[in-house]
Records
---
Amino acid sequence: MDESRDEQIKGAVKAYYGARAAEVVPSCCSPEPCCGEANVEVEAAAATETDSRCCADAGTVSSLGCGDPLAFVEFQEGQVVLDLGSGFGMEAILAAQMVGESGKVIGLDLTPEMIDKAKKNAERAGVEHIAEFRLGEMEEMPVDNESVDWIVSNCVVNLSPDKERVFQEAYRVLKPGGKMVISDLVSSDLPEEVKKDLTSWAQCLGGTVEEAEYLGLMRSAGFDEVGVVDRFDASAALLGSTCCGPAPDATNGPKIESIRVSATKTTSG
């Protein structure tokens, strides 16, 4: 993919989520169809683990996500957590509650509007001194080398046109022994027109890749113990007739899965 195409994709993603940040959206546990714009924010003042789990069970998660990575972490007090694509700040706020006063959470997002909203939500939740939010790209993270104990991410890596670079950067900022747990979408037999469409990229479809390729990129970046710890089929929700055209053929059509992936950085470097 050439550089100009990469910048077009990033521009589309930035514009899309900047607009989402300004919208009033329904509760994430509402019976709305799951398709990009239906994955929504929960007010930070009322955020609890129950909210996050509820959304995961429904297949739609706060902060415009596609799963629940925090269900598969074991944070300890005092640890440093990096949330890639922190959006409205929901996972970062929950993580801040887990690592406590001696810990730190860094939320990274491409969109200034999301950063502003996340900061306000952290203030409402009373964790603004634990959770900070930085404007930047996953492909070039404004984070020090080997400074992070955990990386979490909720349906964001698929938005990047250079996933290999994202995983290399994730490996760089993790401490030896650090872990990454991310929720994301993978696909098979996705039509070329979807892959080329910038709106589909922004809505978490166009940039999806095959699961084997996704896991292979993580291993190539240096990660060990790479494995899928949970999954569900999101084809009907994301490609169904409620929002994105006819329902997919279960046997011959494209398939979209939401997966939770765990990986470890075992050595320095």
---
Amino acid sequence: MILWILIFVVSLATLILSANFFIKAAERLGIAFGIPPFIVGVTVLALGTSLPELITSVISVLNDSSEIVIGNIVGSNISNICLILGLMGVISGSLTMTFDPMKVDLPLMLGATFFLGLTIMDQHFAVYELILALVGIGLYLFYFIKSDHSEGEEIVKTKVKWKDPVILLVGILGLYFSADYNVKSIIEIANSLNIGKEIIALSAVALGTSLPELIVSIVALRKKQADMAIGNIIGSNIFNIFAVLGIPALFGKLVVPDSILSFGFPLLLAVSLLCFFIFQNKNINRWTGGMLLLFYFVFFGQLISSQL
């Protein structure tokens, strides 16, 4: 137990450091190529920060623990909206965006959430659903490559420095290995306390694999890049559903626990719908952030009480 606690602390510190390297290199490369901050958020950053969820899910399928996959997706997306978005609202006091997420981005996130619900409601993930998930992530990437989200943003190109791609790669590798050991340590510690796998996935694993999104968003917030921070959350949630659902299914059968259908997914759907009201005026203030945090604490409290 002491060894796994030590591994948890070290891997968590490495995770935070890797995320910091990643966000700095991604931002510099985005500016160098003339990419608006929002595009950086929904593509490069969202994909990079979703790697822990993806790798964790693939490993869980290969180890015959695929119930972790759905729990990881649902728990991570709840953490992204309630915990990370809530913290950003509380920390900033008033977070204003220059783009309008109501046009396409939030509908895409909500559509992906409904897609997740439809695919897991029968507790069976079919081959055609796997194909649709992979098509979904392809269409999402294609949309942002072809779309213009630069309204209200000043784009200034700079030269690409050779060290930035290297730092980006080191950051991604650091995210992968540190998240892998972080999740392993969380699972080992939780298993010693006789907690169910799907509950661990909804809470500890989801929280652990959401740490990159948290760090990336806070760093972007400190740099006054609100669009990048919000884009990271929206893009990461869409990536989590399509990629983290579809790719692990290539390696084996996915198991959908009853607790996900009865509690986890309904809450995810509710907070995703809530985002439509929060983003009406393209602003998140301290009150809405506090409300989202309250939802997260209730969610975590319900998971804990279910095991007592």
---
Amino acid sequence: MSVLELRSISKVYGRGAAEVQALRDVSLTVAAGEMAAVMGPSGSGKSTFLTIAGTLEEPTSGAVLVNGKDTVRMSGGAKSRLRRRTIGYVFQDFNLLPGLTAAENVSLPLELDGTSMGKAHQAALKVLEELGLSDQAHRFPDQLSGGERQRVAIARAVVGERMLLLADEPSGALDSANGEAVMQLIHTYCKRGTAAIVVTHDAQLASWADRVVFLRDGRIVDQTAAPVGPETLLEPSS
């Protein structure tokens, strides 16, 4: 079953001489349980691709379907509910609220969606335990290491059994060992049925994905399925 489907997505910023086309006729489907890595040079459209996939931005043309529902036709309120209940985000700089503990950061999305504080807290503790962070649940972000903060961010993204995980350079602020650990965690959740798109510049980390999508000048120029090794991702497209 496809969780995310992008159909002929284009995105244009500005008008006239100032017009910039960030995406050009991009189509992609990501199924439940699949991880797709997105690679490309700076300015290739990766960030725009991710924000449109997450319904944070409207495409100029094309359709974005999440669980078969056309999000472009949804009201703002319906899209907000979709994001709270279905889509989880992981950012390079963690985006944790410094005044909340790890458990409070993880439970916040559930509370905002109407879950009682007690149930949200229990759900947060459960996912933190799964990620090996039960002993850090009551610590604040500045008391955690970079790797621990990113694991808390992943916990916040998957709590509530979200179906789609979007990660923007999730290992960018981490050393190589913690970067591998983060990708392994995302991979684990995909094997449970979550669909994921991970934007990364690191070929070694992209090799965790089931498929690697290459963007250049706003277009998908190539896709590589089940790479033999990370070094194959560095070879130029023919």
